[in-house]
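Newbie here. two chains, one complex. Structure please?
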Amino acid sequence: MKVSYYPGCSLEGTAADYAASIEAVVPLLGVELAELEDWNCCGASAAHSIDHTLALNLPARNLMIAARAGLDLVVPCALCFNRLKVAEKALAGPQRVFWTAQPESLVKIWDLLDYLTQPELLKTLSAKVARPLTDLRAVCYYGCLVARPPKVTDKEAYENPENMEALLRVLGAEALDWSYKTDCCGAGLAVARPDVVDTLVKRLYDQAIAAGAQCFVVSCQMCQANLDLPQKRISRKAGRDYYLPVFYFTELIGLALGHPEVGKWLAQHLVDPRPLLKELGFPSL
Amino acid sequence: MHFLKPAPGLAEELEKARLSVSACYQCKKCSCGCPLTFAMDLLPDQVIRLALLGQEEMVLSAVTPWVCSSCETCTTRCPNGIDIAGVMDWLKEEALHRGYAIPQPEISGFYQSFLTAVRLGGGRLSEPLLLGLYTLRRGRILEKLRSGELKNELLLGWELVRRGRLKPRLPKKLKGAPEIAVLFAQSQKES
């Protein structure tokens, strides 16, 4: 299967580990990622907050390129996914968009987790698990924007998605139940109001620990950054030593499949997951 | 006692922007589910009510739209289909456009720096460029130096550079850079 792939700007930067793990594991499942040619920034929170025109025109350009490529479009970043979906609805509706598209010429937009957890791909994955993640207790954290609002994302399970849990079970890990899987991490407020992010993220840490988790698993690089980067600062403020590594689901696929480069991706995290994995019998990463 | 003088103007403007608030019956589901209320001055349901009553000054100078993280919980759960997070975006953009004093200049400055970085980068975001522009825009460098905030920020930045997560380079030059420039120019013309 060949799909168009829209990595988004942060996968070229702070989420380099996410990008590397995607490019390594997705082909192992028989999916070929063809990076969208000449893609541009989706405008992110900045555009939809203060410039509604750019907030549609920037992502719409990517959809026009994807329509020319003619393949389904797979997006690993929750925010990019959401903005592309907003542009998709706008191009098909009465809003004024710089680009003009025939709605039927637009391609289907997937968020990466949804794409990779289609039943047949889970089956392929299941057959390839070489090193099950036995005894790894995790909470799945989906964040906001792959799910909400459903009239944009076209998701059915927007309050309680469960496909990441299904994936973890295939990998042999234990996915714990908790009520915060689609709560907000503070997203784009991380730089301007880190104090706000600290309050939101501390609540997520406490709830993950209450659920019995050793770690988070995420599918959004904004969530990863907000849970991983300030953990030391939040620990200092809270007067307790949090140790909650934050894995991308693609890194765990790599781990269970025995990919040789997993250690390299994990070394890019600020909260080093390797001590936890060593305890679980993954000594040499 | 202070009485509000209702005015229809604001609700009509929102209507025109396809963000009608007139169906609100104050169930407060938006405020109950909002994770950011601890940082807000007005609750989301109050913003909607005040907008409906035409209290332009109060809603356009409020902190609430700026600390809204656009998590879309309110929009998702509103039983009357009001796009509350969309209203928050509209209020931010209009507050800037109409020259209101912005109560959260860090946040508006971050968004402005972000779009400037995308424009200067020719279509993709360079995170180091964004952080540089934002730091310069906000000024306060001496103040941050004294409080130790600058040191902590630089240490975090260094940790990211060391791990290959912050690459001090500009993004790839796009073939479509002239198209992107047109989009930015278009947007300025319309605002």
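Moderator note: Chain A touches chain B through 55 residues (CB under 8 Å). The mean pLDDT of chain A is 96. Thread marked as resolved.
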